[in-house]
Structures are given as structure tokens and as C-alpha cells.
Amino acid sequence: MAFRLAAALCDTHAMTIVLIAALAYLTAAGLLFRAMGQGRPQPGRAWLAAAAPAVLLHAAYHLLVAWRTPGGPDMHFFSALSLVGMGMAGMTMLVGARGRMAALGVFAFPLAAALLVAYHLHGHTTSTVLGWRLQLHAWLALLAYATLAIAAMLAVMLRIQERALRRRTFSTWLRSLPPLTELESLLFRTIGAGFALLSLTLLTGVLFVEDFLSQHLVHKSVLSMLSWLVFGGLLLGRWRYGWRGVRAVRWTLTAMVLLLLAFFGSKFVLELVLGRP
Questions:
Q1: Residues 101-147: pLDDT tens digits?
Q2: Fold of 1-129
Q3: Which of 118, 102, 80 is nearest to 153 (CA)?
Q4: Per-residue pLDDT tens over the stretch 211-226
Q5: How far apart are CA 22 and CA 16, in angstroms?
Q6: Helix (H) or strand (E) holding 182
């Protein structure tokens, strides 16, 4: 671990990309935080000028690692976390540019910066060459996790906003968020998109993964299926019974915890605790 850290710090070109990307992420988050503190519903476009290069440099760093490292795409623990963080930052940028949900960047951009730095400092591991089917499965999984992680952040924001309105604490930052109904609508649209991606992830896993036992995928598959059932139950409850508010928040966060345990929990135990690929 010490050798990997020293090698990462000595890699000047890669370290420069990481530092510039992290600084750009934090600049974008700072601009959005200042706009929220002033209660501005529209934070302007200055934050985009920082967020866009950050996401591009984040992607360039992963491409650089893929070019330098033999084997297939690096899908190990810290790399997967960094890719999910990049996906969250990219989706936040796209959604925020069209409306008042740029406030998500206050949380998503620093998280993406931290995950990128953690990946660089941990070092890179040679991966097994994967066929296009397993690569498709892996990329669908990462995209599904990033989308549903955005949904979890929206659920937390919805809960905070709802509690603030009930207590009649109309703080400055509250005015920078969209109306409660608009935020709730965006939450369910995001869950719907993430649920579709998660469904494709599970389907490609069933079709393309050959041996679940030898690859230690049983517990991951069970937890992923439980998360899929919870998200599906929430969408059904929304369509059939009009579920909203606290119930929607609890179901969303429960499903997200199961999904995190399914992928990153299992990868953490297998790769970092047990030392298995």
C-alpha cells in the first residue's frame, strides 16, 4: 500500500490531472454553495465553467489509466467508486444546467473529487480482460448505481425540505430549491431511469455471467435483487396509491443501502479484506 501511494504521488502527469479536476469540482461546489447561501433560485452559469472541465478531466484520467494499465478496464473497488462519482457529477451537471437542481452539485461535486483522489492515491490494479458482454454488464451496473445514488441524494433533499416547511423554518437555502412537488417529481423520474438500468444490469448478469459461485456473486445478486424489488415496489406504490413524502424517502434510502451493500460492500470485503480479485 505504501509503495502504491509513493508511486501515485510521483506520477506527475496523472497527479496534475487529478489535482486540477478536484480543484475544479470544489470550485463548482463553492460557487453553488454561495448561490444557495444568497437564496438565488438560478445560480447562474459560472459553476458550469468549472464543473464541465472537472468531469472531462475525471474521464481523461480513467482513460489514461486504461491506456497505461494492461488487461481490461479497471473495475476494482476504488476505480468503481471513482467512476460512479464521475457519473453522479456528470448527471448533476446535465440536470442542473436545465433547472434549479444545480444544488445537487454542493454534495455531488466534492464527493466526486474525493473519490477521484482516493482512486489515484490507492493505485491501479491489473484487471482480467473481459468480453464485451461482461463489460456491458459492468458499465450498466455503474450507470445504474450513479443514477440511483442521485435519486438517494434527491430523497435526502426532499426530506430536509419537507421538515423545514413543516417547522416553518424558511431559511435562505430553502429558496434556492425547486418547489416540493417539482423535487418529488424529479425524484421519481430519476428512480424510474435507475430502475430501468438496474433491470438491464440484472438481466445481463443472468445472461452473461457463467458461474455465480466461483465468482462469489451469490450474495451480490441476492442483495441487488432485493434492492430491485424495493425500488419496483416504490414505483408501483407511487403509480397505484400515490405514495410520496416520508414513505418515498424511506423506501428510496432502504433500496439504496441494499444496492451499496450488494456492489461496494461485497467488493470491499472480497478485495480489501480477503484480498480476492
A1: 788 899 999 999 999 999 998 877 666 666 767 788 888 999 999 99
A2: Four Helix Bundle (Hemerythrin (Met), subunit A) (1.20.120)
A3: 102
A4: 554 455 677 888 899 9
A5: 10
A6: helix 180-208
